[in-house]
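Per reviewer request, we include the raw input and output of the structure prediction for the construct analysed in the revised manuscript.
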Amino acid sequence: MLQNNVVWGRGVHTLGTVFLNKVLENMGKYNSETVQFGETGKGKQPNYQLEADNEKVALNGQNHEEYGADQFDEEKISIYFSKADISEAVNVAKILEKNS
């Protein structure tokens, strides 16, 4: 997975299957190929930003609805993750959740 430990010092897979599947759902809804996660919190339910049609959509990590901001501060947001990266993170999270 592409530079997965950039976010909160641990992998995106730690967000869990429920959260990540909702991110994937929103990526489909907004026709976005990439997502970035906010890095200011503890990485439990981070806000995230999608890029669709050359516009950024900020989403609240708790309810996965539009955040009300045009975009996040570039210094406080992760690298870009693709749909494939998030799908891979879901698969890793499934394995870890099954084994815990």
